[in-house]
Amino acid sequence: MPNRGDMPRHKLLFLFALLASAAQRGAVVDAAIVDGLQVGFYSQTCPQAEGAISDIVNNEIGMDRGIAPGLIRLFFHDCFITGCDASILLDESPAGDVPEKESSANGFTLVGLRTIDIAKSTLEGMCPRTVSCADILAFAARDAAVAAGLPNYDVAAGRRDGMRSNMDDLPGNFPVPGHHVPRLTELFGQRGLSQEDLVVLSGAHSVGGAHCFMFSNRIYGFSEEADMDPSLDPEYAERLRQMCPPRKPDDDPQQAPKVKFDAQTGEKLDNAYYAELLARRGLLTSDSPLIEDPQTRAMVEAFAADDALWQQKFAEAMQRVGMLDVLVGEGKGQVRHQCRLVNGQEEEQRQQPQQQQKQPQLPWLRQPQLPWFRQRRQHQHRPLRHHPVANLINGFFRGFH
């Protein structure tokens, strides 16, 4: 075995980073990761649940490959804020709060909501009021990752659904494009996740893509000194310009072109993301800091060189994410009858005067609306609260669908 003096510096840094992340996990994970979940949780109460969800997810992905990265992103965005409680699926809480899904970190960029609705409706027909929306989302994210090329891994279940969703929970608690590694590491640490988890989960950007407006600041008017971000490969930046013309004030963000994170294996969940980073072809602003920091760069280099290592680490990180602040046991949360509504809201809506009701619509048939133009249902007399910080939030996986 070589002694420390013979080991390359970046390998030493990676080993130190792994040790540091392990120490960090031991120090903070207990506060966020909840015991009580188990593999095969529905083996007696709804034994076909996981198989049915897998079939639905694969069928949906067969029609639209963008569903796979969308479901992984949906799962992460749910768990990172108030824990894996399916709060991101709620249209509105009983208190009338603007929900997480309509924050500027989510909004029309969310993909996979229809898939979750289909899965929930199917399971309600098979095993009424048994399988939580939070568990459906965790299973669906796993199935999406497997469909995109990851080896299968177990998902422990037993989560119950939360009863509130508020976009106020995002500002200050969610990664934004301008964050560098120390701040990103701090945010992940607050959620019981390590710096290694940060780098590993970033690899989800090996599938999916981003709308041009999410990175246009890097290729037009970057600074007074440079029109394009100098951390980007110049040829890559020019290609991005060809695909993404300069923005105009009246451009509709929903109609903006999309660019794949990985032009070569953009539908396969693999370690190509790390090779692209090292070649200075990371699409989003939040990607570049990972190769600028010595510790995280060592991890990037290690994962770029070993796809099997990264796949194993990714599955393990997804399992840890799925245990964040979960609601377990009777008396904690509920098993929602619909993933979009807290139990009891359906009856409340039926009891409202007919003239005050809007025609019910499934979420995938609704006209998408930007959060700052959203008209409040049942609370139109209350103004929509504005959050300057929230408007800057890009989201760790924002363009990831």
From TrEMBL:
Pfam families registered for this protein in UniProt: peroxidase
Disulfide feature: 46-127, 79-84, 133-339, 212-244
Region (Disordered): 344-363
Cofactor: heme b; Ca(2+)
Leader peptide range in chain numbering: 1-22
Binding-site list for Ca(2+) 1: 78, 83, 85, 87, 100
Compositionally skewed regions (Low complexity) per UniProt: 351-363
Domain Plant heme peroxidase family profile: 36-343
Swiss-Prot/TrEMBL keywords: Calcium, Disulfide bond, Heme, Hydrogen peroxide, Iron, Metal-binding, Oxidoreductase, Peroxidase, Secreted, Signal
InterPro entries xrefs: Haem_peroxidase, Haem_peroxidase_sf, Peroxidase_pln, Peroxidases_AS, Peroxidases_heam-ligand_BS, Secretory_peroxidase
Annotated heme b binding sites: 205
Protein name: Peroxidase
Family: Belongs to the peroxidase family. Classical plant (class III) peroxidase subfamily. Belongs to the peroxidase family. Ascorbate peroxidase subfamily.
